Fold each of these.
Amino acid sequence: MLKKRVICTVLSLLMLLVLLPAIDTAKADAACITELSLSASENFKTPKAGDPISFPSGLVSITGTTPSGHASKLAISYEWFDITHQESYFPDWSAGHFLSGAWYLHLFVETTDDSVAFDDPRINGSSGRFTLGGKEFVKAYSSPNLIDYYAEFTIDPCGPDTAPYFGTQSIHFGGYLNESLNCQLNVEGTDPITCSVKSGSLPSGISLSSDGLLSGTYTAGGSFSCVIMASNAYGSDTMECAFEIDDTTKRITSFTLAANGNFEMPAPGAPISYPTGLIRITGTDPAGLESKLGIRYMWFDVTNQDSYYEGSGTGTFCPGYWYLHMIIHTTDDDTVLDYTSPAFQDDGELYRFTLGGKEFKKTHMGSSTIDYYASFEVTEPSEFDGTVAFDPADVQFKGATPYVVYSGTAATPGVIVKDKDGNVIDPSKYTVAYLENTQPGTGYAEITIKATGTKSRAFFKIYMPQTTSTTVANADGGIQISWSAVDGAAGYVIYRRAWNLVSAGWTTFERWNNTTETNWIDTKVYAGTRYQYGVKAYFAQRTDPVSGALIGGAMDNYNLGTVGPLKTTVRITTRALNSVTAGTKQFTAKWSGSSVFTGYQLQYATNASFTDKKTVTISNPKTYQKTVKSLKSNTTYYVRVRSYHVFDGTTYYGGWSSVKSVKTK
């Protein structure tokens, strides 16, 4: 698998959360669409793990019969929802790749004219369902101007061949006229991968090679943007690039950087530390420049994509690739820097200097800052020139990281070791030691080649088992969720989704540090609303093997488990049985009703345990009493009542009322 490292500054992309618009329910007198048809306009296929997130533009066509010309007043939008990882992807807002697990595709059909509303929509002749690409889409909920359909998909784990994947969605470059650029883009996937400019344009003087190298010299100032695409036989991925090239003249014409101490390359496991007083800065123009210049540091873990800032970041050096960034800046807004002719103490080479045997290069330039970096590779005592992968028979895949399920014993997944030419090495030629593999978290296998003593590590995740036997049922005061206990769990997180509320996202309820609780009542529910629940087990905090300190916390360990089976019910409040009046060989029961539900069930028996029960169904939700006739005279009957609600062809029941007894005449 091709893996390329970024050697330039990357700006983070902020994920935006999107909520459904508020629903206006005052549509009773508006012109209504009484019949709606959705049909496929292209072939839709289940995505594969590793494919880019894509939205099926034009997936369906929408037509209707009334009012006249209403087709132009209908619109459809999409949402991919990753059930396993609890993330939403909306067109034009989010991008990503399909990971293995459970997914929904949501289709939101809505009117774009407030004078037109939906009324009893029919989908291809069957209320609330239609089939597309072999998948059945089911109506989740409807309102006067919005209908939500969804289909569920299972994405299988990635195979050995994968489409290209950029490590970031966007990248931003800042520079100056006549400055050089040399940046290798990070893209993973199966070789061969070809990079090209899909749209937009690169700055004048900059080119992109087919293997993803941006290089050249800026020959013009201004703003530039483009979309870069990486392609192979299994698909493609894109990334946005933006450039801001400054051609203005600055005021500081020269400054000098000099070593103020001995700088050494960090060792694996050493604490993150910042070289205070590492360099000394002086300048010549304007007078007193030294007091107006400052420096700060940042360690960046390229392998694990973590940043550690001076004064705010702590940690230890892990094996992999690192940068040390030094950001020189003015401390006076009236003083700006000029990099047209800086002089450096080492060898006079433009924009470079050497310190502790490492060459620092300029990577970014702004109106008041300049950013230098040196790259480091932190390795074990000896480097293994080959590859290590886990045996597919022993692990599963969640994205690019293999994982095993925690069983209470040490995890020892098998490994496959290859030399630099790709040939499998005989297991008798190396040993395998497993570390950090006894509890959920990140474990690794350390491979030692016997003949040379060279080592390599392969990392894997240990996840908590899923909860099983999840049930949901209406209870007094709310909906009760029950689940099976998970060995080793320190507590549970309950996920809830409400379909016919304005926001259809997931809400979490944390049951921290509770190892015995396997049921819980959700009291924040509304009558007539359909809810879906899932439960995830989490593991307790762990102890760092080096420092002995606690690492992580309950929130950090969300990712050490996956949500168990999802269960659905409708909140149905318990009815109050107000009275039961005796008559001759009959009785009349009266109860408190609610037109929110579909109807009621009245149940009676000649014993309090209801072993000989009989049930009467009342299908009119506005009927709040029932006379039961043809009974035995002078006989005591026990009576109770409950509501029921039909949603998408499934009948949901509320809890039984308290029992009342009556003796017939």
Note: Residues 65 and 428 are 74 Å apart (CA to CA).
Amino acid sequence: MSKVLVCVAWPYANGTIHLGHMAGSILPPDIFSRYNRLLGNEVMMVGGSDQHGTPITVSAEKEGVTPEEIANRYHEINKKAIEDMGIEYSLFTKTHTDNHFETVQDVFLTLMKNGYLTTHENDQYYCPQCAKFLPDRYVEGVCPECGAQKVRGDQCDACGKTFETGDLKDAYCVHCHSSPEIRPTEHYFLRLGALNDELLKYLEGKEWWRPNVRSFTTNWLKDGLHDRAITRDMEWGVPIPMDGWDSKVIYVWFDAVIGYLSASKEYSKIIGKPDYWKEYWMDPEVRHYYFLGKDNIPFHSIIWPSILMGYGGLTLPYDIPANEYLMYKGGKFSKSRGGAIDMPTVLSKYDSDVVRFYLSIVMPDTHDSEFSWEDFQTKINTELVGNLGNYCHRCLSFTKKNFGSVPESDGVKDEVAQEIDRAFKEYSEYMQSCDFKKAIQGHHGPVPLRKQVLRFHEALGSREDGQGRMRKGPLRQPVRREGTRHHDVALHAQGSREDLRLHGSVRTRGRRLRRNQRQTRARYRAQGARSGIL
């Protein structure tokens, strides 16, 4: 048994989490942690709501309420949606807590003591009309790298390029749409350049990292690292533990990644073992996995390791299996820009197992994937119900009809045992390397072997019920709606939040199955049961 730390990217608490969040960074770590628990490993899975930064203040200003009210509202909504999806965090917490403040301030002061923080003036956007400095999301413009429009002041969602003040073309204030000035203001900076060589050494040999993670990280390091501001001119965030800095706060990109450490400490206190977190963070044998979307790669592969190196004595990330984007109608899911299908709406219509299955097989692991309601319908009907569900039902029906219970085994044929061992080994390798889509693609079991088993069953007289319908089996039924059969999972949708209705889709398949079964039974009666599978 070994310990595994599973760290889940913190969704902003400025809106409801959507399918993109779930497929990209929330469901994958749950799959991984469940797998490790089944192996007998001791898993701590932590994350929570990112409650600071400009996304929260922007939403609060739109509604005319405080940032804390927005942050707590969406924390509760998202926490319930995550629980309804069956996601099993050790702790799902939030960044606006005393425990998090203490941890962030401790990291801040330790980095300063170790010589990795410095202060100097830097240029920031300033809006004369609004009479204030403009943090990242209060500025939009054109990306100088790829030309994308309405790009925010900190990073381009289209190409992943991060910006310094003045990089944006045609910048404007999101409040009044006037052109901002660039003025100097004093801030604390993380001395990333002082850690460049250590980061390059850390990156060596990380061949198991996904290509997108390695390329993002390598490109950053090739360009050379520069000091990066970790404070902002605003009031919402973690207070700076220094006199004379009351009008500024520690900024979100710095404090959010420290949440993995603060959440581990909070969980340890909750279970009555205040030092339990040290077993995960101070033991180099413990592997740390970080699950996130590709837009967060540099913050976890460069900035967070830099913070940990500067602090000293804490375990660095072992793997960062970052996913690409789940797209919808050709665009990225986005809370702040619209176009998102939120999880509470989806879960009000569909069983969580159905959603988990579908997101697992379309997971955007190595490239962007497209979500559509039509594809959802097809994959649930054919792969979950028609293949996996039908196979389980027919095997169990055959067993009950002929034996009444699961019979004792008198041994397994070598070819069957070998095929099972091969399939399980392949599955385990995929799971351990966080290739969940490839792992679930084998969820039906070895297809040729399965077909032979079913044909042998049918040769012995196994059949469906009198009307060719699948009877209700032990598999949790995906969807149950008034006026539909429990196994029918077709749907109709015209948008992201419409009433999704279910329609029948199995009757034709049932007739085809009965015809094929009659032909198969006749063939096996003539040939004898010579398959040798059982």
Note: The radius of gyration is 27 Å.
Amino acid sequence: MPADPARRPLRADDVLRLRWIEDPRPSPDGHHVAFVERRVDEALGEVRSRVLVVRVADGAIGCPSPDDALDAAPRWSPDGSRLVFLAVRGAAVTPMSCAPDGTAAAPVDWFPEGVVAALPLPGGGSLFTIRIEEAGDPALPLWEVPAPGWRRDGRPDGERTLRGSLIVREGDGSTRTLTERSGDRAATPSPDARTVAVVSEVPDGPGGPAVGIRLIPAGGGPARLLVPDAARVTALAWSPDGTEIAWLGRRDTGLAAVADRLHRTSLATGETRELALAGVSSPGAAIRSDDPRGMGDARMEWTGDGRIWLRWVADGAGRLGWVAATTRRDTTTPAAPVVVVAGDRAPLAFGLTPDGALLAHVTADLETPGALAIVRVADGTELARVDRNEWLGAITLGPTIRIRAFAPDGVASEARLTLPPPTRAMPTGGWPLVVSVHGGPHYAVGDRFAFETHRLAARGYAVLAGNPRGSGGYGDDFATAIVGDWGGPDLADTLALLDVAAARPDIDGSRVAITGVSYGGWMTLWAIARSGRFRAAIAENPIADLVSAFGAGEDDGSFWAGSLGGAPWEVPDRYLDRSPITHADAIRTPLLLLHAELDRNCPPSQSSELFTALRRLGRRVRYLRARDVGHLMNFTGGTAFRAARAAAIDDWLDRYLLPPAG
């Protein structure tokens, strides 16, 4: 395809033009949809966000937030007369209220200190979730660690006590505290507002961290545990009549990181049954990319027309749809979900009116970060669309091709191969290749816009992003194949996908680099310790030593025990053998280490250990640390960090993958 002279390739500074739409919330009457827009602010040097409101009738947009705001979490009052959202004003978080069209924004007249969520209630009241961090006395020479996993990502080490509660403020001005448990989140009132369901964390529960559901009477009184704290819940939704709660998660923590299941629990009997979904192995999941949408808790809605809505992942693509709540509730009769959003794209967020008549969803594809589509559910008519990235129409992106490979044991896996745009002339021998390994490891990449992929492609690199075994969306057997065997089937799949890509005539299989973040960083280190195929490697926030990683992060070691099939004293040889630092003497690939100084998931000591080992061995290694950012530095980092990171990556790849000048 000839290049369009009116279009240009993507540049690193184009990240400043990106607008990420998330959290769509239709008003109860369906006349307006509120949503959040995030961007990297060049002047402030950090990610900012604001709340916008679109009028469905004509697509007109109102904005109750200033352009440099840090606002989020829009929620409608039950009668749709006002919109409440959270705004950062100075050092405080302030709930704001505005008219349905986004005008007349003003602070809520009363709210508690430390508010992190505000939900309007019937009768003019509000439900507030608060969380306050209380630091210990700095004059004390010793302070006690309260429990394993006391560190918080992105925060310096130090004594911190979290104090949280739910507070109801009635329309008459009276207030009452419902709970003071700091581990409660996702507070959701019942349809009659008499009961509040919360996702309740139990960090020191039996068998490790667990997350259940508790029911709290809105009028006060003892809470009731509805879903046991031996479960792991990621989303909940009340039935329209308030007699049941649907939830996503697992009734055990053994495979908590692999895939959720859809359940229904009766409030009257406490009976919980799984609602099996035909062809859906990862309900609630989203395709991952290099912005944070789709991370964290899942989302689901149970609408008045008897439908339970959710998103899921299948074969590297996203889906959005619903299952009839009248479906028989057992595990032997799978329900066939009705797919509303399909194709080569990735639904990231959605919201519906209470009656289920209007759907607002944000869906990305390989060439666009995602527009907001507002759809009439009955006939699929699109009533309005908001695209905040129309400037990408002037950018030439390279094509993305789906490839499939078979490992030596015959198991198939797939990947997306993105080629440079037609504005670049292919060098003799083909494009150099960058193999990108996703994190998790149980996430999935696929049919979703990835800025970094297109940025590298614009610089003349083909980028291979695969879903080896361990990835979600291909069934439980595929996802659990690496439990206790990190670096076995997942490395075999990665190398098989590389073989298929390198065999193409437009790829130079002799010029290949590998890169990844988190688990992908671990895989990068493991691959260069086991294979000499790579000319260069870039590991971001990697794990190098599994023994020292155990218990050093934000949990109590349960992630590692579940991933490796036991604790270090139970399977010591496995921890030692699958630690890249054990095989440091086999690493001869030039390696760039990038690590966030405030990373509490994969502590920076991991890169420090390997850097010391490789320098002692005389290997080519460079180690860069990112200041004042945590594990998700690629999502939350500001302007200066993003520019410095891109420059460092480009320098390393150019040095080892491009042919010598002249």
Note: The first strand starts at residue 20 and ends at 26.
Amino acid sequence: MVMECITLLFQAGRLAEARALADTGLDGLVDEDVEATFRLHLALVCAQFALTEVAAQCDRALELSGASPPVRLHLRIMRTFGALLEGDFAGAAAAVDDDLSAARAAGDRMAEVLALNNASTVAFHRQRYGEAVAQADGAAGLASTLGPGPHRLWPDIWTAWVRAAIGQTDEALAIVDAALATAQRESRDPDTRWWSMCRARVLLSAGRLADARAEAEAVLETVDTLGLGKPARNSSAYTLASVALRTGEPNALRTAASLADWMTSQDATTMKRSGAWTAALVADAEGDVDRAMDLLEETFAALGTPAPIFSTPQDACDVLVLMRMAIRAGRHDHAAGVMHEIRRRADLNPDLPLALEIARHAQGLLDCDGDAMRRSVTVIEVFPGPVARSQVLEDCAEILIDGHRAEAIAQLDQAVRWYDAAGARHDALRLERRLRDLGVRRLQSAPSGPAVVWASLTASELAVVRLVADGATDREAGEQLALSTQSISAHLRRALNKLEIDSRAELAASYSRHIAAAQ
């Protein structure tokens, strides 16, 4: 009962009351091992609702001389995890090797899973991506031998996140979709929401903006009722803000700014840094590059150090976005710092083609080297998703425009097409204005009537519409598409709004007319 009350207080953000109740609830406990176990469980709760409390609760428990060796081992590893959540990278990095050795020496496979996951996170922040992937896979594989249970959730999610962050979005999405289907089949609603959160983040990395938004909105609708906590809210907020910057919808942009403010107001360094990055993106999109630079002072200061920069997991191409910001602001010192970081990543990951091409592209961007830019275009498939590829084309076009006008215009035109395909209409319109300034008017096919509206549906929205029009319930559609019922509802709601339809019956009739017209 005490633990349940403490959990509810943390969920409500009433940290002082939660701490006081925890201390009161432990009064009179004679067995220090029981108290240590209690605080270990409390740390697990804090990992969702009060990130800066995780390490503090573990420290209190580790002071108890009567804590048993197994409990002490798990407390040590949880404390390292708390340091990572809080942004204390140096503390976490100093502990991971000893944690892993101790877990293996004890033969405690659960502790080894947690220690491996921490080690993978440290390797990721050190930009040793091959090592991070190997350790993440090791943690997930070992967790699978322990049977079903909540211990599998975070290692499995981390394996997907790491791959998405280094540009392997197809592999990441395959992991997520398989796990999401299993969670739905077994009616594990909290796990389904966690996987939807992860899916939203991977879809964002892949440039599938409408689908990412639908997943993130579905998560935020249930984040409190299912007790998912701050990590899920933070990830979903970042996803929605990033999509808003690409689509340019006024309401979404206002929401993006407020989400950035919320993230920045949090205690944990990781949350603050994620909020600062989001706020800087908003400022840069509004043309206020000086404010963007001010918001990112800590980020620039972290360059060249083995520490979280944007928070985690960042996308591989975010360093190019940072480079562009510094160049637009005329901050060549910052641009040089970003270049040093990019080269270091490439040197540490010689087997990762994306890291090498990012380094080549960034150097060409810094030097205004047209030949280097052309090299990026020839290997553009290495860059993950249509948004990242469009940005590469923009970089190349702006450097080539004075001496190679026709080539640059063709690149801008292709970038518009890719932005449109991703749903990044704000970016597409911006480039269309740029082309008009250059005296170019793009010829576009102009379908009219209902065909225009139906063409505006995303692939996911259309897939949901097909099933619902045939009479499927949200749950049935979710089972067929490996999506949660909340995600199905979000896709359906957006489709109905676009089609200006109020009911499923009307949707079925409209879909029949659309199919007949297409034939």
Note: DSSP finds 29 helices and no strands in the chain.
